[in-house]
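Sample A.
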Amino acid sequence: MNKIIKEQIAQLRPSATLAINEECNRLKRGGKKIYKFGFGQSPFPVPESVVLSLKNNADKHNYLPMQGLEELRAAIAEDLNKNNNNNNFEQDDIVIGPGTKELMLLTQIVFKGDILLPAPSWVSYQPQALIAKNKVYWIQTTSKNNWFPTASQIEDQVKKIKSENLLLFINSPNNPSGTVCNNLQEITEVAKKYKMIILSDEIYSQLNFNDQYKSISNFYPQGTIVSSGLSKWCGAGGWRLGFFAIPKQLKNFKNSLKILCSESFTSVSAPIQYAAVEAYKGDHSKYLNAVKKILSFTANYVYENLKSNAINISKPEGGFYLFPEFNNAKFSSSPEMCRDILNKTGAALLPGSDFGLESNKMIARLSYTDFDGANFLKNTLGSKKLDTEDLKKYAPNIVAGVAAIKDWSNSL
């Protein structure tokens, strides 16, 4: 039967993040206590005004323009220009898709050239390149550089491959490391020198803990595609709405992408798009501040309780993740280590090798979102300062799971 499957497709396996979520659910149904630290889904509810807008627009049933609802594209452009860009995006620069994942896949299909991926990178970048038959060149990073590539590393790789067309992915705050890229300016200089395109995955940008987010498009607007959506900051992963903001200098690329959109998903669900107008036009600062307060406190609790001589871990700066390295772990690979952690503690982590790191590095991604976000939000809204008792009450799996991992590490 493999004769009817294309070679590059036969090499694929299910997305690591989705696979670990299904495995956790299977183990839980079997009666095992599981700490779901492997799947990065927002635990928080969608803001009430956005939910109400969806209800009020449930009767919208016509196909919308393939590029997206004009009012929504205008709202996104205004929101981008106000919050984290020095660009002057207009509604015609925005393309709406059923999540950024789909738009990234179509981008890989459109793009003719080679892909530069920092390791670690989100689990779907490389498989999508494989589907599109784009060659991937990894740039191995370290915690010393906050898990982002240096300008010299990028340039060294570019000189080796001698490709005319390059697409570099930058994801900040980063999945899986939870860190923010601090050397955007120097990366920009290399990108300009070699006329590369940058895809700036900013899906966690509004969950930046220091409230001083910078997009690489601030420094390189003419060559940067900004990618974001509703899934993380708005708690609406299942709604499947994302967008690309594409500079006018890449108009031909945008037009080709639109054609692929028209031949694949046609247009995003109409009620979701109408509801998303409220997401981007409404004032959700109270909601966002409360969400970030919980995430930041939870992240720092995990960080403070895990860091030790045995566990090297970078301080969390945004998003849902930490990226601990277990210095005293002696396994043949990071997947073997994560299986041992799951079997002995019930804590489900994803191995660093799923994110492009060498498998002999004992590193794993930990998502600190295994709690009831609606309950946590409801009971801690306002100026109250969070403490460990709040975590024990509203995020008991975080406390217990971290303690189990710490005990596991100490037993090695």
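Sample B, a different protein:
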Amino acid sequence: MKKLLVLLLAVAMVFAMTACGGSNGGGSGEGGEGGDSEAPIKIGFFAPVSAPAASADGTSSLNSAKLAVEICNANGGINGRQVELVDYDDKLDTTEAANIAEKLASDDSIAAVVSGSYSGPTKVAAPIFQDAGKLMVSAYAVHPDVVNAGDLIFSQSFPQKLQGAAAAQYATDELKAKKVAIISVDLDFGSAQVEGFKAQLEKINSPIEIVYEQAIAISDNDMSSPVTAAAAAGADLIYSVNYYEQAAQVLREVGQKKLDIPVLGCEGADSFELLNIAGEYANGLYITTNMNRDDENEQTQEYIKNYVDKYGIQADMVGASVYDAFQVVFAALTECGEDTQAMKEYIAGLQNFNTVTGELIRYNEDGSAVKPVQIQLVTDGEYHYAGVIDDPQIIDPANY
């Protein structure tokens, strides 16, 4: 009889360990597989909430993280358990981000982590989570080193070069530009997109000529000289690769100088704060981004409505990407519990996953999202649909 009981217990343990893909890979702890089924599921999060240069994006990030958790819990949580957000302010500081990552990575009660921050803090944090066996989904950090940290790291956004290539294609095919002036932030965020832009022009034998190019320090918001120089060079399009504050100043200079030169920006300009700073001069701005406000997808429109109702400001790409990252983590937790390896395999295998920023076609081998690049146009102080770049060769991060 004792032998029979031992055998039955052994069989039961095998079934418990093999549920949803295997034994825990480092992410369970209290409340995980075999833990307290009544304990909340904890998800770590960090964003640049108090950084002056990124406060709008930090606000959008944290707002959307809280909204995602609130709606999840209102709908019953995950498998009957509530979700708890464990959030930190990284202050757009890499040292602070590393300290936060160490805290979250060493906390066995944290099931997974979402980065709501820029590339600098995120690419510092990613290897720490990878080494600790903790899964992380980055919402909008674009540097390839984020996903290159390892197989537990995923990204919802486009690499910089990909976004630059999409901008070049749109500038050539739809805006019919012939002479382009480039004004970009003097950071990897700017230089890599410019590199992708130039490479795509060459690849497609575009008629576009780059007649002026200037990299601007992140601390410099005076855009009078570069905009004046762009006009003097005969530019019929300004490619502005900047974050929202500098992008807004480019628009103000173009508008106040009454220049008839359209501006094509990037996702760094996808912010409610750009609309506030640029005012009427924001109208006519094109941007490459991953959010289409006019998408008829019910999930997109519900997110926009819920966000505006709760916070009283326009939803933007940053917040939507954070919300999407949480939806991916929620789906993995629902299917796999807090089994990190199983969650990783589940996310890596996602295909045609419906998100607020449209259809996530798949993740490629390095964990980067494959999805169309949206083109938005600011009209009447709001972002609206202007086009989409969905060429498989352009939107696959593996090609950059």
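Observation for Sample B: Confidence is low (pLDDT under 50) at residues 1-35.
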